Fold this sequence. Notes:
Shape: globular
CATH architecture: Sandwich
Number of domains: 1
Distance between the termini: 26 Å
Order of helices and strands: HEEEHEEEEEEEE
Number of strands: 11
Amino acid sequence: MSLLAAILLLCAFPALADVAVYYPNSTNCTAFNSVWATDPPIVLTGDVVNGELTSDQKNTISTDDDNSVTSTTGTGTQASGVRVLCKVVEDEAQISQLKWTVKAWALGGSYSVYGTTLAGWNYDGTAFTAAQNDVPNGANKVTVILTITVTPGQYVDATGYVSLAIFQTSPPGAGGFTYVYYVQLEVTYSAAAPAVPQTVITTTSVGD
């Protein structure tokens, strides 16, 4: 092997980016029918209603089709929807992006069409500090995407859990409920670099 080839083999390869995908029915993931006292919510779990979905319901919102789960109707200033909780196995320090994709349709108590809001829970700030909402789209489900790229590790707790709230974007005091069709979480992280072959270079001195 030439000296140049040996030096190239000793150079470290750059870290590779990879993506892991989770759904509400994935291992260590779940979802809750939730109603919060305020819209938008200011606490993690529904403080009016907080009931875990059945296995069938979690399967429903893990499949991209026209079947949905309907949240309990909220009234007045309440927010109604679904909270998703997933435990990711990726190292928090290696995560560069969290991307939630949700298909949903939100209605008011009088069946007025509202938008749908996604909000990510910041475990460092103990609040929903990342949010994305759509605009009303008539009697149709919409796709809403929340991408977190700034300090995404703050949205992962010490044991690896990530939380998302899905709820109606309603006028103050209007209440409402949400049809949730599909939920997906993509975690972009730095994968381990491939092992670098170790090459030993030896020299031989030849005497005069």
